[in-house]
Amino acid sequence: MLKIKNLHASIEDKEILKGINLEIKAGEVHAIMGPNGSGKSTLSSVIAGKEEFEMTEGEIIFDGIDLTELAPEDRAHKGIFLSFQYPVEIPGVSVTNFIKAAINAHRKSQGLGDMPANEMLKMIREKSELLEIDRKFLSRSLNQGFSGGEKKRNEIFQMAMLSPKLAILDETDSGLDIDALKVVANGVNKLRNKDNAILLITHYQRLLDYIVPDVVHVMVDGKIVKSGGKELAYELEERGYDWLKPEQV
Amino acid sequence: MTIEIIMELKDKLISSFLAFEESCDVDADIHLLRSQAIKEFEELGFPSKKEESWKYTSLNSVLKPDYSVFPKKENAIEYGDIKKYLVHNIDTYNLVFIDGIYSSHLSQTTHDKIDVCLLSAALAKPKYKGVIDTYFNKAIPKANGLTSLNTAFSKEGAYIHIHKNRVADKPVQIINFATGNEAALMIQPRNLVVVDENAQVQIIERHQSLTDHPVLTNSVTEIFAGKHAVVDYYKIQNDRSSASLIDSTFIDQKAGSNCSMHTFSLGGKLTRNNLNFFQKGEHSDSTLKGITIIEDKQHVDHNTLVHHQSPNCESHQDYKGIFADSSTGVFNGKIVVNQVAQKINAFQSNNNILLDNKATINSKPQLEIFADDVKCSHGCTIGQLDKDSLFYLRSRGIPLKEARALLMYAFANNVLESVKIPEIKKRITHEIAMKLGVSLGFDL
Q1: Closest residue to B391, CB basis, from A50, A98, A104
Q2: What's this model's pTM, rounded to 2 decimal places?
């Protein structure tokens, strides 16, 4: 589904990603772990198409299509979803209206008209129940005054509504207490199926107890320095990252 | 060269005055006022950039056309042609003027408990003499060239009088259309709004040109809010790029009154809003809010004054501006607090987004505080659309144009929160969406 080959990317001439290779197949869950500043969030932004980053080398192929020249919205329409570490606040636009705008933009890209109101409502009800989201929450301005947990829950709610092929969850566990983490992880697990894939970006092994990955990658200084099964996460938890400096690999 | 042209319009107006007076009733009391005013205009003329408050707004280009001062009477407008410019989904009283002339068949007036009619009638009929003598031209503390010019040619406009303890049963719309029958037209609407003690009214005002011929409107509105009166006034400025508007509004507030002015500036060649609040009684409350979204070479200038003359009052100013292409904006907000006006809360905020390198905003707060126990704050920001926010929206599949529109809406949105007529909120949201050329896929 996703094939990243020798990806180099930089921002303001500073190289952050220094040759990433990664392949994710449908039905898989991958986790990328690594210390702060290793380029994990940059990788997720580059896949989603953030324009401030310049891809200097390599390619990102998604479902056989080279994403390099595609705008973020076009990538979204193809099925890529990024759950943000820091979701932005949009005053005056409710969660419901925002998700309507997003859904209808997806439909428009497929040549469909707006989703009928009753269908939309039904879907909103189902997906908000999945994430134990209060009805009142849906009429609040998007992310405005939301707690860290509410913001993350809202991100996964949007994921549930848009049902992407590839969901990149960037530090979805940060700012969540254990109960909220369980709800979010449970929501994500229910959305998993053989046709979609998930890329988890995280510092901590904690999230991986709830969303169990098929593959764990370790990223240090812009490169993936080690890949392995879920047991790698435990090893990292115990030993830290120092034993995995890129030059040692 | 330019100076010469300005002289021409000034001279033309002065020489037209006699003919104008002949068309009016010269025996009326207002005759004296007009004669005095034309003399003042002769002396003061049009403001120039040399004046501090006109530093960033030049009238040169809008004074150039050879404006006709006397439109031909031509009322070939049907309701269907203008419906879209009215807030028409709610029941309102309507005062419609076409090329400065009252259109009875498009208007709906009343004298039932409240007076909503035309100024020319109020000026002429003895019944209204008391109100006219007490209020007409009394809210303007110091004449300037533009207000004098308007007074000299004052003849038609809205006359709204809400009697003591009355609440207007529906909003009043004042709409001035220019038809373009003339190659170029200058109009001078004059509105008088008197809201007695404990009375309430909501007013919507719009100036709309129907063709691409140049139009210059020099409008003056006086509003008197009696004790505990409530006045909510909405100005929708979304005219063609051939039409310019100079609006001077004076609001005189008595104790406990609550007045709000929302100005939505979404179009027009040049728009200058001179908005003046005078708090003349304790516990009065003033709200001044605006959304400006313009492009091309459009120019919008908000020149506000809040003069706190009594203690224990509040004022709230919040102006949001979004400027595209080489459009220019000015916010010049002056707050004066007299020595007696202790315990004042005065807030002012002006936030701007420049979408292009060529767009300009000049923002200038001015505070003159002579009392020592007051709370005054002002803040001004100038920025751009946030890249991270744009990326967030686009990553959800919302295309760039719509994402920008959503962010602009979010930026300006809180100004709409204090709008008390839901239909106006909808209307403004719709006009903004139309202007930005997007369908946001939902009703905001």
Answers
A1: A50
A2: 0.90
